[in-house]
Amino acid sequence: MKPYLLKAGYCFLLVCSILSILGVRQTEAKIGQLDNQARLVVSHAKAVGATQMQPALSVEALYALTRADAQIAAASFSNENYAVFSKKFSMVCDAKVKAESAESSLEVSNETVSEEMANRPGMVGRLVIPSVGVNVALFSGSDQAIVDAQDSAAYFSAGNSMVIGDHWNQGFTKIKNCAVGTKAYIYRGDSIETLTCTNVCRGINNDYDILYEDGTSATTGSWLLMYTCNGANYHDITITIWS
After folding, report:
1. Other Cβ atoms within 10 Å of 14 Cβ, number
2. Residue 107: what pLDDT?
3. What is the pLDDT of residue 103?
4. Mean pLDDT score across all residues of the chain
5. CA distance 155 to 34
6. With a cut of 70, which residues of the chain have pLDDT below it?
7. At what angle do helices 3-52 and 59-76 cross, to 10 degrees?
8. What contacts 101, CB < 8 A, 6 or more positions away?
9. Strands (E) located in the chain
10. Among 179, 177, 182, residue whose Cα is nearest residue 51
11. pLDDT tens for each residue of 103-125
12. Which one, of 67, 64, 63, lies nearest residue 87 by Cα?
């Protein structure tokens, strides 16, 4: 073999070795980056869990949640310019969330609900489901006028259960976003009742009772049932069960 071919071969092997080393280092860096992102995701999940355990999202909890979101967003951008933009945007979001959460925290309390109840005849409390954005006044009875009114849900007994019902197009459709374990709170003016979602399913309103899809009654248990229509057909509903 000619000398220049040997030199070329050595050079080729040297280049391959260098590229291999660089590749390993890049792989290690990528693994490190993925590990950091995984840690951020875990931190974010913990922040979400912490907020869901509170009757009203505190400023501190929402701040932690928003910062976790911002960290994940920033870590997701390899381009430095995008990362800088993401951080600036997250700061704006922080300020807005903090302001709105502080205002929201002041809106719902036993004191404010007690004042509402004194000024709104028939009002028996206020339902708040923080994780899905439900916040509605509860009125005793099942009259159509109750659910037709804004910021007004019907609260009544049926079978062995207590029932809360409201129109889907007045915001109560959000209960469809609940899941097993979701927390809800009823402010009664002098106490707070804490509820945990145990079931979410489709159902039937047959005008006389709330039924599961198989036709059996959903009001036989000593639980609280929330329901709303899935659209214009009021017989087609979503049911959530709470204990």
Report:
1. 10
2. 72
3. 42
4. 78
5. 49
6. 1-106
7. 160
8. 57, 58, 59, 62
9. 123-129, 134-140, 153-158, 161-165, 183-187, 192-205, 210-212, 224-229, 236-242
10. 182
11. 444 479 999 999 999 999 999 99
12. 67
Token pair, residue 186, equals 């009823």
In whole angstroms, give the CA distance from residue 209 to residue 224: 14
Q: Which class for 2: exposed (0-12), middle (13-18), buried (19 or more C-beta within 10 A)? A: exposed
Question: Environment class of residue 18 by beta-carbon count within 10 Å: exposed (0-12), middle (13-18) or buried (19+)?
Answer: exposed
Residue 60: what pLDDT? 57
The two three-digit tokens of residue 40, written as one number: 């951020």
Residues 86, 87, 89: CA angle, nearest 5 degrees: 65
Residues recorded for the chain? 243
Longest dimension (CA), the chain: 103
Question: Which alpha helices (DSSP H) does 53-79 contain, by range?
Answer: 59-76
Q: What is the DSSP letter of 95?
A: H
- DSSP assigned state of 208: S
Lookup: tokens for 135: 């916040």
Q: Is 170 exposed, middle or buried (0-12, 13-18, 19+ CB in 10 A)?
A: middle
State the pLDDT at residue 4.
47
The whole-angstrom separation of Cα 209 and Cα 219 is: 8
Buried b (16+ CB within 10 A) or exposed e, 145-161: ebbebeebbbbbebeeb
Tokens standing for residue 16: 């391959």
The first and second tokens of residue 121, run together, are 């005849």
Q: What is the DSSP string of 130-178?
A: TTTTEEEEEEEB--HHHHHSTT-EEEEEETTEEEEE--GGGTGGGGGG-
